[in-house]
Design brief:
Blueprint (H helix, E strand, L loop, with lengths): L6 H9 L2 H24 L3 H20 L7 H24 L2 H26 L4 H16 L8
Amino acid sequence: MPLIATDAFRSEVARARPTRLVVMLYDEAINGLAAAINAISDNEIEERCNRINVVTEIVATLHLGLDMDKGGEIAEQLGSIYRFILGQLIRVNIHSDSQGAAQIIDVLKPLRDAWVEVDKRLAEGEDMSAMEAAMLRRVEAAGNRLTIHAA
């Protein structure tokens, strides 16, 4: 089944703040991994591959969107996490590793929650330095969750 953006989704993307777009990408990645886990359990190889490929594109987009000049330590740590996830997605796809996919979800969820908080604070006009400190704490915590088993 092809994965197609709905008109409602396109409309939401067109009017969303950049931080909201990041949250939407995380949501799609998490949902894609959940769908891949279901495909693995149902032995639906094509569906698993399609879902993992979409998640790979999302994580690569997040990685390419990092501003390494202005993002400082947060961008460096997110880049490291994204590169790790990209490597693990290959492993998940090759080995039909539902546990590895679930562990990636466990890494993405706290990052998604951090972006939700940043988006909310930004909408409320909160001080950027306070947001950066909160985001850095959450990124470091997510980085500490990188315990996905090796092949």
